[in-house]
Amino acid sequence: MKVVVQVVEKVISEAHIYIPDGLTESTIKQYIVDRYNSGEITPDLNIFQVDFESISATIVQQPQEVA
What we know:
Elements: E1 2-14, H1 25-38, E2 46-60
Antiparallel strand pairs: 1-2
């Protein structure tokens, strides 16, 4: 029997980065979003927490062979 199992988890990642001094709140947000979207922040991200959300399984019907 073949079963497809799906696990849904919420992953919280954390990065400690340095940003230029003197930026406004909106500029800080845009700076972080731009770094994230460009992939530049990805190497700095570490998994901080994983929360289990749900699990489900579906039995896959296999075609029967004709003898």
